[in-house]
Amino acid sequence: MTDAMQFRWTSCSCSHVGLVRQVNEDACLEQADRGLWAVADGMGGHTLGDLASRLVVESLNQLPPAANLEKFMLDARDRLQTVNRQLRGEAAARGVRIIGSTVAALLAHGSRFGCLWAGDSRIYLYRDQRLQRLTRDHSQIEEMKARGNLGDDDVLAHVARNLITRAVGVADVLELDERVMELNDGDVFLLCSDGLSNEVSEQELSEVLEDGNCEQATRLLVDLALQRGGHDNISVVATRAKDLYGSEKTVLNPGLAEQVRSD
Fold first, then answer.
1. What total of structural domains would you count in the chain?
2. Among 46, 177, 222, 234, which residue carries the largest CB count within 10 Å?
3. Could you give the 3-state DSSP secondary structure of residue 156?
4. Which of 46, 137, 117, 38 has its CA nearest to residue 87?
5. pTM exceeds 0.85, yes or no
6. For position 86, which CATH number holds?
7. Using CB atoms within 10 A of its CB, is residue 36 exposed (0-12), middle (13-18) or buried (19+)?
8. Within a 13 Å sphere around the CA of 175, how many CA atoms are in the beta-carbon half?
9. DSSP symbol at 1
10. Mean pLDDT, the chain cut into blocks of 10 residues (263 residues total)
11. What is the gyration radius of the CA atoms in the chain, in angstroms?
12. pLDDT value at position 144?
């Protein structure tokens, strides 16, 4: 078994227009066999957000196979920069200020994974019964919190909560943040647009992801956001990693084999 095949992935995705918007400007990518997932949220209030999110997802979907995670992420960065230029050109041609989209992408290769993001779409990791947010929102409200000007209790009520500071198509050069970590057996990841994170608490996310059932988690989370009013488009991608070497280690462990024989 090669290192690239160390983990087997299961995943599920869903994108829902919600109960208020007329157009779904979100887009999802789910490619478990390639170790590639993404959520893109076309910028609300701007022209052709659905076009922007679709171009982001299509560009990532065209990524070629890579020899390692570094190359995989570098290629993804290049693709997103190309989309950024396309959206800037499209906006200029149409005479509008911005056609843009957030992006949150999860890429896995061998025993590691990487996150790339711009905007306020998020990636969470559920590991060892604990939920961890891997991304930091590029938003005015997050910047205010970092400066100590806003407490967590004020976040949901604040008028600036939907104002983002980075996205694909916003500036001539796209700024992407990234994070790389080692994978653990049983890791569960959640990618989502703010249509979910604005409606559902992190405690609720943790409770839903606890079972590790991606299909069930995706369905329950979308339903929960809809029950809270579905004020925005809702996109959810859930994926789980299974270490294929783990079972081999158990079978080939000499001490365990000796114990089995003696019993």
1. 1
2. 234
3. coil
4. 46
5. yes
6. 3.60.40.10
7. buried
8. 8
9. -
10. 75 98 96 98 83 98 97 98 97 93 98 97 98 93 68 53 87 97 98 97 98 98 98 97 71 39 42
11. 20
12. 73
Q: What pLDDT is stored for residue 163 in this prediction?
A: 84
User: What confidence score (pLDDT) does residue 141 get?
Assistant: 76
Q: No. of H helices and E strands in the chain?
A: 8, 10
In sequence order, the 6+-apart residues with CB closer than 8 A to the CB of 58 are none
Dihedral class, residue 35 (left if φ above 0, else alpha if ψ from -120 to 50, else beta): left
Q: What is the pLDDT of residue 252?
A: 36
Determine contact, residues 21/233, Cβ cutoff 8 Å: yes
Task: Determine the pLDDT at residue 103.
Answer: 98
Beta bridge partners of 126: 131, 188
- Residue-number span of the structural domain to which 107 is assigned: 3-262
State the sign of the Cα–Cα–Cα–Cα dihedral 195, 163, 207, 37.
positive
Residue type present at position 108:
A
Signed CA dihedral, 133, 11, 17, 106: sign only? positive
Handedness of CA 156, 160, 166, 169 (dihedral sign): positive
DSSP per position, 159-219 = TTTT-BS--BTTSSS---EEEEEE--TT-EEEEE-HHHHTTS-HHHHHHHHTT--HHHHHH
- Measured CA to CA, the distance from residue 129 to residue 131 in angstroms comes to 7
